Amino acid sequence: MLNELNRRNIGIFAHVDAGKTTTTEHMLFQSGVVRTPGRVDDGTTATDSLDIEKERGISVQAAMTSLIWKDTIIDLIDTPGHIDFSSEVERSLRVMDGAVLILSAVEGVQSQSETIWHALRSLGIPTLIYINKMDRVGASAETVIDQVRSSLSPFVCEIQSFRMNEEVFEGIDSLWNESQKQVKGPPSSIPGLFELLAELDEDLMEAYINGETLPADLLDEAFRKLVHQGEVFPICYGASGKGIGVTELLDAIIEFLPAPAQPQEPSVSGVVFKIERDKTMGRTAYVRMYGGSVHNRDTIYNSTRKLEEKVTQIRRMDGRKWADTGAVHAGQIAALYGLSETHVGDIIGSPEGVPPVPQMAVPLLTVQVHGKDTARYPDLVAALQELTDEDPLLDLQWLPEERELHLKVMGTIQLEILSSLLMSRFGLDVVFDPPSVIYKETPRSSGEGFIAYTMPKPCWAILRFSIEPLPRGSGLIYSSTVRTDLLLLRYQNEVERRIPEALSQGFLGWEVTDLRITLIEGEHHVWHTHPLDFVVATPMGIMDGLASTGTTLLEPILNFRLTVPEEYGGKALSDLVHMRATFEAPIIGGGRCIVEGRMPLASSMDYPVKLRSETSGRGVLTTSFAGYEDCPSDQTHTRKRRGVNPLDQSKYILSVRNAITS
Predict the structure, then answer these.
(1) Angle, vertex CA 279, rays to CA 273 and CA 285, nearest 5
(2) For the Tr-type G domain, which residue ranges apply (predicted)?
(3) What's the Cα-to-Cα distance from 65 to each of 27, 88, 325, 503, 550, rounded to whole Å?
(4) Class of residue 189 by CB neighbours under 10 A (exposed 0-12, middle 13-18, buried 19+)
(5) CA pair distance 247, 126, nearest whole angstrom
């Protein structure tokens, strides 16, 4: 009997072309949601709804669908596999109770697989591994499992075996309960199960050392507990294109991945993980609830933005359609309407129980957008603002005076998608300048910045900052040691709010990062000080400090895995050296040469095209963001500064004060 509490919220994750959308289609088919499974090549899949998705055969947006399997409601989110759309994956990760990571039995573990895996592990999300495409030429489950154990986790357990007739994949058999139909728990035939669990459980380790034989139900309980804790990972097999292994995968999802945790408190708690604009319904906010309930016409509190909004309608997924439900409860995902001021990542109600945001999507390129029809410039601004509302990482920079529009993007595929979206959705024909790398700056040494903003009256803001460089990846750490009787708390809060803005442009025009800023001196005046004085003073004090420390240019670095036919290995290694890459000794075998290492983005942007040309399309390069590192001293990359430089204090004060009084 169907029970609303008996549900699973599952994310489907994979590297590009691992068969993620095909697997989702066959899940819908096997559960009776669709009469025939859609095909990616034909553009008939349920979760790829955009025209560009159907044309290109790739997933661009995270798409939600729902099915019922063995009296259990399964809400599935099919996420994009291409690295250019990692922001969609990142937002989906936050709202999942369990995950299925799909790997191709041919390509194995890719860099994007590792990136997703680390994000899943950082959030402790229970994960089931599904090795797909077992029917393809070159498939090797043994090789993939070795990669999984070395690159992802040694604590994996095959809960299925597969049948091969010579080199033809025929099907799978379940190991769990297969040999003991009437006995709860795993059979003893699963090799190494006791040893695997004992490594993670002290009581089991003691029993193992003492040579005890444990009952199956005890092993079963320990296995499920460790899977739910995200410490042990079941492995399944299949060939989704032929529908083999999909029903067993659905069984495993219900059997081993957890239901949503029941909240301890009845208070409303949820997070907005996606914003869309429906043609008929308007602005749609997708919310995962962690506590309480929300009903139609409820006024809900957005604790992120400190505002209240009224919900006008609530819809939830029912198969492939959204249906009006009038309410959403803890553990459920729903589409809420009427939330015009709510943005992606905002927390509804209490933040208790809402998981943190994983950091895996980092835009490394910036690009300027031009509309072909200059008369429609205002429409282009509005369209890009709407798209940035849906994907905040686009980070639209609109410079009205220069009539310039700049976006941050993950890669060139994303530009194609944006161009298609702007045309199909808004009727806007655009061109993009060639994308350029986003560099950053960091202080070269420690120093202090000082500003006494006391003229022209009325104004009074005195600030002194200590600035220290930090290790790469530290970001910004800010604190204050100033007593509140010398500088009121509300003024100190204003300073803290303005620090990120002050660091958005360093000497070379790039964001300044990896530093500690401490406010060590501050003073206000009882009569002359206005809160906006600190809006003016903070950037001047920060830039004065950076003038004393100097800055070092940082460039983005990528982890890479390059696979080429063996005969191209020498040329590939030569290319890597010219791109300033650092790498381990190549692995050669089976006619392939595999190289792993790190390379600068700036020197490798054009390499994928060159690689395809050199290897006749047989070379494969996968990359993921590794972090920022010091740029070689002989390279300088500047970006045009927006607005007046705060180092030119007189001009800057006049500029900002004019803006304030306008």
Answers:
(1) 20
(2) 5-261
(3) 10, 16, 16, 42, 52
(4) exposed
(5) 20
User: Chain centroid to CA 391: how far?
Assistant: 11
Query: Measured between alpha carbons, how far is 552 from 85 in angstroms, rounded to an integer?
Result: 30
As given in the structure block, the two tokens for residue 135 are 């029917």
Token duo for residue 289:
């609830």
Which phi and psi (to 5°) does residue 635 adopt?
-115, 135
> Cβ-count burial of 62 within 10 angstroms (0-12 exposed, 13-18 middle, 19+ buried)?
buried
The residue written with tokens 């209240």 in the block is 308
Which residue type sits at 492? Q
pLDDT mean across residues, the chain? 86
For residue 259, count other CB atoms closer than 10 A to its CB.
18
Distance CA 74, CA 32 (A): 13
Which phi and psi angles does 217 have, rounded to 5°? -70, -30
Residue 456: asked if its preceding bond is cis (omega within 30°), the reply is yes
pLDDT in tens, 262-303: 776 678 999 998 888 877 788 899 999 998 999 999 999 999
- Please answer whether residues 435 and 367 qualify as being in contact, where contact means their C-beta atoms are separated by less than 8 angstroms: yes
Separation of alpha carbons 348 and 286, rounded Å: 11
Contact at 8 Å (CB) between 652 and 645? yes
Span 412-425, pLDDT tens digits:
778 888 898 899 88
Q: What is the pLDDT of residue 444?
A: 96
Name residues of the chain where pLDDT drops below 50. Answer: 1-2, 48-50, 53-54, 56-59, 178-185, 661-662
As a whole number of angstroms, the distance between CA 79 and CA 87 comes to: 10
Yes or no: say if 358 and 119 are a contact pair by the CB < 8 Å rule: yes
441 touches 510 (CB < 8 A):
yes
